[in-house]
Amino acid sequence: MWRRLFFELLYRFGRPRWDTGVTPPELLDFVAGTPAGRAVDLGCGTGTNAVYLAQHGWDVVGVDFSSLAVDRARRRAQAAGVSRVRFLREDVTELSDLGTFDLAYDIGCLHAVPAQRRPRYAKWLATSLRSGASYLLYAFTASDGGPGIARRDVEHLFAESFMLERFEEGTGRPSAWYRFARR
Q1: Structural domain count of the chain
Q2: Closest to 54 in 3D by CA, of 40, 69, 75
Q3: How far is CA 11 from CA 8, 14, 80, 138, 169, in A?
Q4: Full-prediction pTM beyond 0.85?
């Protein structure tokens, strides 16, 4: 409840620092080298990346638990003239069956999920990604008591159903990019 209120207030009274409006190069590179399919954007915010994927032929479901972010994402998609995207106001740890996906990506959501709820997130991913599908994750690494998740915890969380294909430390704030493949 408090977490949801925190995010609603951030979207209502300003522009959260993570809402840059820029698709990261890691996602650009992935799209350039991968045939379009079905994708889910976990923690989609105002829809920048979901709209980008839809513009490149992907069928996309964007999920965020901020109703203000989801409303802005829907307006962004409408303004861009894309129809291959839908946005849901949901908690990423309580998702129902949304079908099967070829790509899941999370740019800054998992590290903010409480540690005790992360296994639910991982279980949903394992049941929702087809074999061979990709999971792209950007997360802050745990440091100084702020939000984050250690590399060992990320790898442990997904070890049963996913294979780590790539790991790259971020620049600036301690962070990392992960690319997993669904076994």
Answers
A1: 1
A2: 40
A3: 5, 6, 21, 21, 28
A4: yes
CATH number at residue 13: 3.40.50.150
User: In terms of Cα–Cα distance, which of 52, 47, 178, 51 is closest to 122?
Assistant: 178
User: Three-state SS for 106?
Assistant: strand
Residue type, 95: L
Average pLDDT over residues 85-109: 96
Residue pair 102/131 in contact by the 8 Å Cβ criterion: no
The proportion of the chain whose per-residue pLDDT surpasses 70, expressed as a percent, equals 95
- The pLDDT of residue 122: 98
> Looking at the chain, how many residues does it have?
183
Structural domain of residue 118, as residue ranges? Answer: 2-182
